[in-house]
Design brief:
This protein is α/β, with parallel strands linked by helices and about 350 residues long. It has helices spanning about 15-20, 45-55, 80-85, 115-145, 155-165, 180-185, 210-225, 235-245, 245-255, 265-275, 300-305, 310, 320-330, 330-335, and strands at about 1-5, 40-45, 60, 65-70, 95-100, 195-200, 230-235, 275-280, 285-295, 315-320, 340-345, 355-360. Bound molecules: guanosine-5'-triphosphate and magnesium ion.
Length: about 350
C-alpha cells in the first residue's frame, strides 16, 4: 500500500513523513526543493501477528507494510508545477493532505495566514484542475485522431465527458458513482481526485488536547464533505520526536503527554478503514505472516494474493478466526471445538481469519 503525503509548502509534510516512518529527512522553514520524492516503508503493527509469532516461533515473521511518499508542496494556481507534484503520487492508493494549523511566525505560509479550511479547499481544487486538464487533453487527442479517420472509443469518451461534467461542479471524482466497468476503462488515466483522501490537521504543541481542535476537525470534515473519521489531528513536531525514540522511551513520552496512541498507528488504522482493507493471516513453523486484501474479497482472491498457483489449484480454505484460535490455544484444540471450518472459493474472508489453503498444482 502506497500513501502519498500532500499539502501546501511548509504545512509540515516532511515532519509528518518523519513521524510516520521514523526517518529523519530535513525539515525547513522555507519551501524545500527536492527533485525526487522521499519514500519510506513501515511495518503495520499487528498484535495478532505478535502473539502468533510468540506461539509458533517461526523462522520468519512478516507484517504488512505501508509505503509513504513525501514530495514538494502543491502551489495554488501553478498547474505546471502541480502536474509535476501530482505525477509523483499517481501510483498512490490514497492521499493524505497535511493542513497547517500550527502557529509559528518563523515558518512562512504560502498564503500568509493560517487557515486550514481554505487550504483544504485549495488542495482539493488543484486536484480537480489537474484531472480536468488531463480529460481535456485526452478528448482533444481523441478528436484529432477521429479527424485522421481513427474510430474513437465511444465508451471511454462518454465516461470522460461524464467525469468532466462532474468536476465542473467542483466535486472530486471520488464522489462520482461509477460502475466497475467504467472505473476500469479510465484506470489508465490515473486521476488524482478519484483517490480516497485522508486529512491530517497539523496543530501547535500548545493546542494538544484542546477541545477547539476537535471543533476545527468537525468544521473541516463538514465543509469538505469528508467522513469525520478520515480527519485526524496531531502535532507533527511532537510526533516526529516520538518517531525518533526507541519503543520504551516512546511509551514513557506518550504517557507523560497523555497521548493514547502515536499518530503513526492512528494514521495506519484510518488508511485501512478508508481503503476498506482487512488482513488475513497465515501461520506455521516457517512463517507467520499478515496479508492485506480488500474487504469483501473471496477465499480465491486471498489465495491469489499469496501465489497464482494457489489460486489456480485452489481446493479448500481451512479457516479459523484469530480470536477463536487464541482462546483455544492450538490448532488441534480449535479443531476439536469446531472453530476450524472448510470453505470454498466464494467464502468472504473476514479480518483476522487464519487461513490454510489446500491446493493442487
Ligand atoms: N511549531 C510547529 N512547527 C512545525 C510543526 N510541524 C512542522 N513544523 C515546522 O514547520 C516547518 C516546515 O515543516 P516541513 O515538515 O519541512 O514542511 P513541508 O510541508 O515538508 O514543507 P515543504 O517540503 O517545504 O513544502 C519546519 O520548520 C517544521 O519544524 C508543528 O507541529 N509545530
Ligand atoms: Mg518537505
Amino acid at each position: 500500500m502506497n500513501i502519498a503525503i500532500s499539502g501546501l509548502s511548509n504545512a509540515g509534510k516532511t515532519t509528518i513523513f518523519n513521524a510516520m516512518t521514523g526517518l529523519n529527512m530535513e525539515t525547513t522553514i522555507y519551501p524545500t526543493v527536492i527533485e525526487v520524492p522521499h519514500k519510506g516503508s513501515v511495518k503495520v503493527p499487528d498484535a495478532r501477528i505478535d502473539w502468533l509469532s510468540g506461539m509458533f516461533k517461526p523462522k520468519k515473521t512478516t507484517y504488512s507494510t505501508i509505503e509513504y511518499t513525501d514530495f514538494v508542496g502543491i502551489t495554488k494556481g501553478d498547474i505546471a508545477h502541480n502536474r509535476k507534484v501530482l505525477d509523483a503520487l499517481r501510483d498512490a492508493d490514497a492521499i493524505v493532505d497535511v493542513l497547517r494549523a500550527f502557529d509559528d511566525q518563523a515558518v512562512m505560509h504560502p498564503d500568509n495566514t493560517v487557515d486550514p479550511i481554505r487550504d483544504a479547499q485549495t488542495l482539493e481544487m488543484e486536484l480537480l484542475f489537474s484531472d480536468l486538464e488531463l480529460i481535456e487533453k485526452r478528448l482533444t487527442r481523441m478528436d484529432d485522431a477521429a479527424k485522421r479517420g481513427k474510430k474513437p472509443d465511444d465508451i471511454e469518451k462518454k465516461i470522460l465527458i461524464k467525469c468532466k461534467d462532474f468536476l465542473e461542479t467542483e466535486r472530486p471524482l471520488r464522489y462520482l458513482p461509477l460502475s466497475a466497468e467504467e472505473l476500469k476503462s479510465i484506470r489508465h488515466l490515473q486521476f488524482v481526485s478519484i483517490k480516497p483522501k485522508i486529512t491530517v490537521i497539523n496543530i501547535s504543541e500548545a493546542d494538544m488536547g484542546d477541545k477547539e481542535v476537535d471543533v476545527m476537525a468537525d468544521a473541516i470534515a463538514k465543509k469538505l464533505g469528508y467522513k469525520r473519521e478520515h480527519v485526524l489531528t496531531l502535532c507533527g513536531k511532537i510526533e516526529m520526536e516520538i518517531g525518533q525514540l526507541q519503543p520504551e522511551e516512546a511509551r514513557d513520552f506518550l504517557n507523560a503527554l497523555g497521548i493514547k496512541e502515536p499518530a503513526c498507528n492512528r494514521l495506519i488504522n484510518v488508511c485501512y478503514e478508508a481503503l476498506e482493507l482487512i488482513s488475513f493471516l497465515t501461520v506455521g513453523e516457517d512463517e507467520v505472516k499478515s496479508w492485506t486484501i480488500k474487504s469483501g474479497s473471496s477465499a480465491l482472491q486471498a489465495a491469489g494474493k499469496i501465489h497464482s498457483d494457489i489460486e489456480r489449484g485452489f481446493i479448500r480454505a481451512e479457516v479459523v478466526p484469530y480470536d477463536a484460535f487464541k482462546t483455544t490455544g492450538s490448532m488441534a484444540e480449535a479443531r476439536k471445538h469446531g472453530h476450524v471450518t472448510l470453505q470454498g472459493k466464494t467464502y468472504t474472508v473476514n479480518d483476522g481469519d487464519i487461513i490454510n489453503f489446500r491446493f493442487n498444482v
